[in-house]
Amino acid sequence: MDITVAVDCMGGDHGPHVTVGAALNYLRRSTETQIVLVGLRDAIEAELRLRHDAPAQRLRVHHASETVGMDEPIASALRSKKDSSMRVAVELVKKGEAHACVSAGNTGALMAISRHVLKTLPGIERPAIATILPTLTGHTYVLDLGANVDCNAEDLLQFGIMGASLVSAVEHKERPSVGLLNIGEEEIKGNDTVKRAAELLRNSGLNFHGNVEGDDIYKGTTDVVVCDGFVGNVALKSSEGLARMLRIFLAEEFKRNLFTRLAGLIALPVINAFRHRVDPARYNGASLLGLRGIVIKSHGSASSRAFEYALERAVDEVRNGVLRRISDRMTVPHPGAA
Question: Alpha carbon 318 to chain centroid distance?
Fold first, then answer.
């Protein structure tokens, strides 16, 4: 199956320099993929001219006359910029000209535009942002990471269903385990919303593990961790900040004096292996779940290599039928959800 991905080339901190380069690199190793580069034609073609070995037969440029700034108000991006690269890329998915869209642009704008253009799948009230985080046992999927700050119990149930459907599809796990992020493992812990969500998840037919705490995310206790967008975003940003601090501290200690520099040189193979294991580029690409189309959000500051991972995630979701999995699961009655 040939899969076509629409790329918002103007999104992110680096624009076409990263997005075009990543697209070309990905096409070189993926013979079943076609890519539509969406954005300012002159900027994209200038970048292509710098790379003389572009695979033209599987690549085309689709002009869009406007761009969405990283700090642009959501209302402005949604209502005033009908020909932005972000919106045009999403509309290509709606029209069936692309199977998925990838953007490194403004997260709020991407979610708003995607929801407005694509709409939600039947039975889904709110789309959610899901991403992969490394764990002691491999990795886990966490959602929501900021799309929905205020959630009710039914929303959290739907997040669990969508997350489990995603993992079942791309990881080929028949019954992935689902945990509900809470301040304790005991059933009496948490606010009324979380307690009610736990009850719904317990009766949903999912492989519900129960409540999990923050440290369970990185232990890899469950395949899926469910939370509202406020908690999820705080957890994600805290984790990113901690990882950044540890990298800086480690570099400072190895540079402290001649002896620590020599120790760092000896330990270099271990350090490089550690960097590869926790390299954030490998986990780039968050899924906007619950929409009538595949949309992947790349980190705004992603490198070309990191953006390739986002492209790969989009293709994996299309190839493994994530939308069908979620739709099928949502048609199954969920006891206690009414």
Answer: 14
